[in-house]
Amino acid sequence: MSFFDKIFGGKNESPDQKSFWKKIESEEDLEKAIEYSYHHKIAIFKHSTSCFISRTVLKNFEREVESSDQKVELYYLDLLAYRPISNKISADLDVRHESPQLIVIENGKPVNSASHQDISLSQIV
């Protein structure tokens, strides 16, 4: 493992190590997430797995979630592997694409969006 991988995380690391993530890997997964937002506020984290900035923001956000007692439904999208779904999120929710990006959804509508260093658990709760 290189020095930079130790600081920013290796390319093979994925959020499935964290039990709080629900992955979005299909349009059906996205539809289920949006449907769930009618009952509870959710957040979708759009992550570029090839970007060290995105990886750093993801790790910081995960630390924040792990140290919090807040119960939040968190969804993860690997936007490089699932670009069409990322595009669908942008089009359907009318939210400009950014990476990394956190989109908070309630009742099927985006209520907050943040990118880069602005991503924080406080965007959700």
Would you kindly provide a written description of the structure presented here, covering whatever features stand out?
This is Bacillithiol system redox-active protein YtxJ. It comes from Chryseobacterium gallinarum. With 125 residues, the protein is of the alpha/beta class. It has a single domain, classed as Glutaredoxin (3-Layer(aba) Sandwich). Helix content is 34%, strand content 22%. The protein contains four helices and five strands, in the order αβαβαβαββ. It has a five-stranded mixed beta sheet, sandwiched between helices. The longest helix has 15 residues. The protein is globular and about 30 Å long. The chain starts with a helix and ends in a 10-residue tail after the last strand. The N terminus is likely disordered.
Name of the CATH first level: Alpha Beta
Structural class: alpha/beta
Give me the strand/helix succession. HEHEHEHEE
Q: Order of strands side by side in the largest beta sheet?
A: 1-3-2-4-5
Pfam family, one: BrxC
Organism: Chryseobacterium gallinarum
Protein name: Bacillithiol system redox-active protein YtxJ
Fold blueprint:
Layout: H1 3-8, E1 21-23, H2 27-36, E2 42-47, H3 52-66, E3 73-78, H4 83-93, E4 101-106, E5 109-115
Parallel strand pairs: 1-3, 2-3
Antiparallel strand pairs: 2-4, 4-5
